TrEMBL record:
The keyword Metal-binding does not apply. This is Acetoin utilization protein AcuC. It comes from the Bacteria. Belongs to the histone deacetylase family. SUPFAM superfamilies: Arginase/deacetylase. Pfam families: Hist_deacetyl. Residues 21-317 form the Histone deacetylase domain. Keywords: Acetoin catabolism. Pathway: Ketone degradation; acetoin degradation. PANTHER family: HISTONE DEACETYLASE HDAC1, HISTONE DEACETYLASE HDAC1-RELATED.
Amino acid sequence: MPPTQVIWSEQMMAYRFSETHPMHPIRLELTARLCADLGLFARANLTLVQPGIATDEQLAAVHDADYIAAVHRVSAHPEVPDEARGLGTEDNPAYAGIHEASARLAGGSLAAAEAILGQKALHVVNFGGGMHHAAAGKASGFCIYNDAALAIQRLLDGGVKKVLYIDVDAHHGDGTQSIFWNDPRVMTISIHESGMSLFPGTGYANEIGGPDAQGTAVNVAVPARTTDAAWLRAFHAVVPQLAAAFAPEVIVSQHGCDGHRDDDLSNLRLTIDAQRQNALDIAELAARHCEGRWIATGGGGYNTASVVPRAWSHLVAIASGKPVPLATPVPRQWRDYVLERYGVRTPESMGDNAELWWRSWEVGYDPADPVDRTIMATRKEIFPLFGLDPWFD
């Protein structure tokens, strides 16, 4: 069983834009409670770690100093927004203490990087992290500080030569991509709903990285209404091949679960079953290429009771070495708590009873299939840069 850390403290729930904002911290509370009720937090190889607040110096590893100062100002005076920097907008409402709350999530992913560097853990999960839209100098899409980027930069500064970032949120991981756009040590792979139909409107196949890092930005922009089979086909037609070619030392992944069919903030049609399988796939890539070194973060996910806690409890279970079977009943005490506290009836099973099957790329390219066209667009842009054949490899 791999030594595993999970970053968690109820103080992380201070990341709260408003009671009606989609990014509501009850999703974190319910995830932690479900993990506990499933017995995951009691596993002998799993340690809970409370995050500290990232310092301004630590944040400056990926964020502009004037942006950090702006977050401080808005944190102290939320009545004076800075919309030019994305602070105090509809997506990112200002509130007192926003700096501390955001820096704590960032501190969690920095702690994850330190655990990997110090060989204190092989796997670390920060389900409160994954704020992938935050750019170096601007907040965006509910994200203030980019904790995943901070973790990646800390790994690099600590001597790691290559990091693979895999983002499976329904929305393009634009902030993380932009921060490492011209850094050949970091490959960012984002599989997301096309910007033609979903925020932030970026993440197309021809976004391949800066002049010194061609091929290290990888984007698979699947069409709206993509279901499990096509999504998993897209992942397996691109990610394992590039992971092998890039040869990373650590994988950092973002597991936004807003692609679920019951999430209102995307148009994808995925199930818990596919999201769980994807986490298993990423864990396998870390085992194959990185001697297991893996940091997993949360991200988007706005069905706060029925989807997010199940998806991220599966992630914790997988990271700690013993996956929870899909047929496992959701603990009755957890379901009763959610019903009594929030008035929501939640699923009785840890899975969605989906039939997981997808065509491997080896069976051939179908030009009539819009997902296959998406896959081929990405493969044609990226694969030749790594000596791979986009048609066959």
